[in-house]
Amino acid sequence: MVTGEELLTQLNKSCLPRHVAIIMDGNGRWALARGLKRIFGHQAGMESLREVVKLCVELGIQALTVYAFSTENWKRSRLEINFLMGLLIKYLYQEIDELCTNNVKIKILGDIEKFTPEVQAAIAMAIERSQSNNGLNFNIALNYGGRFEIMEATRVIARKVAAGKLDVEEINEALFAGHLYTAGQPDPDLLIRPAGDYRVSNFLLWQIAYTEFWFTEIKWPDFSRIHFLQALIDFQNRERRFGG
Ligand code: FPP
Fold first, then answer.
1. Which atom of ligand 1 is the closest one to the Cα of 48?
2. Which of 36, 166, 183, 218 could share a disulfide with 40, CB 3.0–4.6 Å?
3. Cα–Cα distance measured from residue 94 to residue 145, given in angstroms and rounded to the nearest whole number
């Protein structure tokens, strides 16, 4: 089997994606296949996330966005939701020192008002502690939905027009993008989706207009640096024409 070292030699470090987005899918199936409860899949998935963040830092990637909880995930059992929230709190408190040492800046994409005070406090701590970092932009999508994000941006822009602060003719793609959670960040160049499903699931709908997709059957808890490097190498072998 190919090693991470071998893959690193194949990687062109001057031509990396600026922004990588990941739909961390397959945790539940990974656990069930091992006779475990679904929550253990999320626990194992947290380790994959740690490894991927570390690799993004090593490679100097500008932005990483991970889909950690969608607006649809509220339909899951109370037990699973609580477990996911507990995992998020644990992750943020455990990792914040190392993330800051690595100059990682945390940003949340999504509406966190629905979360408990404990979750909101952990998020506020992580944002506050990492706010002056200028290395990897690490975006965690939480209670995130692409349609909701676009609708909210539209609402804010419409209010500005109604208040006479913005002329309709001034609305263009750059202005619209500036009203999204990802304002100021480049659009994802690469979207990775593990676990064998080939869909977008309401993730970054505006931002992925020209994104390259990379799919694998591997479930997220089994996703390692090898897979991430493979995705980057495959990305580098694609010809991007942006409709031209
Ligand atoms: C999708 O797999 C995964 C999620 C809804 C949660 C992702 C969360 C983690 C990886 C935990 C670590 C993250 C943070 C930010 C601490 P699924 O449960 O839908 O899997 P399935 O399709 O096999 O059921």
1. 10
2. 36
3. 27
49 in contact with ligand 1, CB cutoff 6 A: yes
Planar angle of CA 21, 24, 30, nearest 5 degrees: 155
Q: Is 237 in the active site?
A: no
* pLDDT tens digits, 83-103: 999 999 999 999 999 999 999
Ligand 1, atom 8, residue with closest C-alpha:
68
Ligand 1 pocket, residue 110 CB under 6 Å:
no
Of 176, 183, 136, nearest to 16 by C-alpha is 136
Domain count, the chain: 1
Distance CA 200, CA 81 (A): 22
Which numbered atom of ligand 1 lies nearest the CA of 67?
Answer: 7
Whether 28 lines ligand 1, by a CB cut-off of 6 Å, is yes
CATH number assigned to the domain comprising residue 95: 3.40.1180.10
Range of the structural domain that residue 221 is part of: 15-145+187-235
Q: Which amino acid is at 71?
A: T
Q: Is 25 labeled as catalytic in the residue annotation?
A: yes
109-160 pLDDT tens trace: 999 999 999 999 999 999 999 999 999 999 999 999 999 999 999 999 999 9
